Amino acid sequence: MTAPRTKRLLRMGALVVIVAGVVATVLLWRSGSESAEPRGPMPLGNHQVCSDTIMVYVQKDEDMTRVAGALAGDTQIAKVVTETSQEVDDRYRRVFANQPELRDLLKPGRLGAVIHVVPSSGTRTRELADRLRTQVTEASRVEPIVRDEPVAGITVPPLPCPSSGEFPR
Known about the structure:
Keywords: Membrane, Transmembrane, Transmembrane helix. By secondary structure, the chain is an alpha+beta fold. The chain is about 40% helix and about 20% strand.
């Protein structure tokens, strides 16, 4: 083999390796975008979930922590977001800030903690909620919120929900 031909083959080989690496990176990035998110429970904090959600209400923060940890490994669940009883109380007080007669009715800790469960793609929200009602014995209530179902008295369609299932903050 001549030196120019060898150089040309090396360049072609290097180009093939680079292109294959770029293609593999793009494919892995696209297919792994959901799995790149943390699988463990996340505090509600700045999360504003807008996709179908199942609200699991428990009385104690300890129960919330234990149940949320167990649910995080469920393949039918994409995301588990937690809200302590203090955070629930704070949210209630913010919502009713201009209505002191309602705001002041709340005794601290009375509402309990909440686990916001986001079903995985392809999982039926109501069926998952039915399963959680029997599975999560600590739950005082399990309520599915299905985004595309009409809500009594609300005639304005909801804002489009990003594919992440959360509104940006």
